[in-house]
Design the sequence.
C-alpha cells in the first residue's frame, strides 16, 4: 500500500502580491500599526530570498510597522536580512533611514541611552542639511524624553537654521513647542504649534496635523485661552477625523467635553464620564497622558480624579518611565558608536 506524503512548500509572493502587500502596509501603518505588524508577520515566510529594490521597500515599510508597535522580533528579523552581505549593494544609501528607525524604536521603548548612540551613528550617514536636520530633530526628542531640555532646545534651534524643507521645519517647530510646553512657556509653545499645524493642514498630512492640532488645543487649555480654543477646535476636529487615530479621538473627546463644561456649563452625563474613564489607559500610554491630571481637576469630578489615580498605579505616565520596556536591538555592523558625530552632539 502506497502512502502519499505531502510536503509543505512555501510559495513566495509574486511581484503583484508584494506590491499589494506593500500598499496595505503603508495604509495600515497610518491607520492601525498593530494590524500592519500582523500583516507583515503573515507574509514574512513568503518573502523572496533574492535581494531586490521592491523587496527592500517592503522590508523598509515592515520595519516601520515593527518600530511603531515596538516589536523587537520584527525589527531584529528585518535588520538581520538587510545588514547581511547579499543585501549590501541594494541597501547602500539607505543606511540613514534604517538606523534612524532603530533609534526611534529605542526611544519608544524608553532606552534613551541606546537611542542617543544610534542617532550619533545615523548623523554620520547624513549627506545634506535636510538629512542632518532630520536626525538632529530625532535626537532632540530623545533629549527631551530623558530630561535634557536645554540640549534639546539648542539642537532644535540650530536645526531650524539648517533646514530648508517646510515639512522638516514644521516638525522642528512642533518639537520646539513641546520643549516650551515642558518649560511652562505656553505662549511660546502655542506659537510653534500653530505654525506646525498650519503647514501640515495645508499639505494634507492629517496625522501630523491632528497631532500638532491637539498640542495647540492642549496649550490653549493650560493657558485658559478658551477664545483661541474655540477658533481652532473645528479645524482640528476635521484633521482628527481624517487621521482615524483612536488615541487622537479619545484626547479630543476630553478637550471638547471640557470646553463644553468650562465655557457653557454643560455638566458631563454619567455616560460621558464612563467614556472618559474608559479612555484613560489608552491615553496614559501616549505622550498626551500627563495632561489628564489638569483636565480632571478642571472637570471638578471626583470620580474622574479617582479613576485617573487608580489607573496611574497600573500604567504610569509615559514621562515617568525610567527603565527600558522592550528588548534592545544592536546594529554593530553599521555603527561603531565611535563616530565623529558623537563629538558634535556632546557639544550640546
Sequence:
Amino acid at each position: 500500500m502506497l502512502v502519499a506524503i505531502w510536503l509543505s512548500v512555501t510559495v513566495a509572493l509574486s511581484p503583484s502580491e508584494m506590491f499589494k502587500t506593500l500598499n496595505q502596509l503603508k495604509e495600515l501603518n497610518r491607520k492601525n500599526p498593530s494590524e500592519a505588524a500582523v500583516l507583515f508577520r503573515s507574509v514574512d515566510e513568503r518573502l523572496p530570498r533574492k535581494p531586490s529594490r521592491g523587496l527592500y521597500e517592503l522590508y523598509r515599510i515592515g520595519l516601520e510597522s515593527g518600530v511603531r508597535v515596538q516589536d523587537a522580533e520584527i525589527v531584529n528579523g528585518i535588520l538581520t536580512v538587510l545588514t547581511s552581505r547579499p543585501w549590501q549593494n541594494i541597501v547602500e544609501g539607505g543606511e540613514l533611514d534604517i538606523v534612524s528607525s532603530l533609534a526611534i524604536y529605542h526611544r519608544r521603548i524608553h532606552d534613551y541611552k541606546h537611542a542617543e548612540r544610534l542617532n550619533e551613528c545615523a548623523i554620520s550617514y547624513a549627506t545634506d542639511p535636510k538629512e542632518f536636520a532630520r536626525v538632529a530633530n530625532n535626537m532632540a526628542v530623545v533629549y527631551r524624553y530623558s530630561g535634557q531640555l536645554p540640549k534639546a532646545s539648542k539642537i532644535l534651534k540650530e536645526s531650524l537654521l539648517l533646514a530648508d524643507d517646510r515639512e522638516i521645519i514644521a516638525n522642528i517647530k512642533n518639537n520646539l513647542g513641546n520643549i516650551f510646553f515642558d518649560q511652562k512657556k505656553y505662549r511660546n509653545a502655542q506659537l510653534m504649534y500653530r505654525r506646525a499645524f498650519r503647514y501640515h493642514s495645508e499639505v494634507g498630512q492629517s496625522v501630523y496635523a491632528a497631532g500638532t492640532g491637539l498640542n495647540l488645543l492642549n496649550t490653549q487649555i493650560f493657558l485658559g485661552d478658551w477664545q483661541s480654543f474655540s477658533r481652532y477646535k473645528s479645524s482640528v476636529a476635521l484633521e482628527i477625523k481624517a487621521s482615524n487615530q483612536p488615541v487622537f479621538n479619545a484626547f479630543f473627546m476630553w478637550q471638547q467635553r471640557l470646553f463644553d463644561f468650562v465655557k457653557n456649563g454643560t455638566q458631563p452625563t454619567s455616560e460621558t464620564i464612563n467614556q472618559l474613564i474608559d479612555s484613560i489607559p489608552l491615553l496614559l500610554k501616549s505622550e498626551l497622558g500627563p495632561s489628564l491630571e489638569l483636565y480632571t481637576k478642571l472637570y471638578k469630578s471626583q470620580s474622574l480624579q479617582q479613576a485617573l489615580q487608580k489607573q496611574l498605579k497600573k500604567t504610569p505616565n509615559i514621562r515617568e518611565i525610567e527603565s527600558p520596556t522592550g528588548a534592545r536591538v544592536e546594529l554593530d555592523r553599521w555603527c561603531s558608536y565611535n563616530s565623529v558625530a558623537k563629538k558634535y552632539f556632546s557639544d550640546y
Q: What stands out?
A: Residues 210 and 238 are 8 Å apart (CA to CA). Confidence is low (pLDDT under 50) at residues 1-8. The radius of gyration is 22 Å.
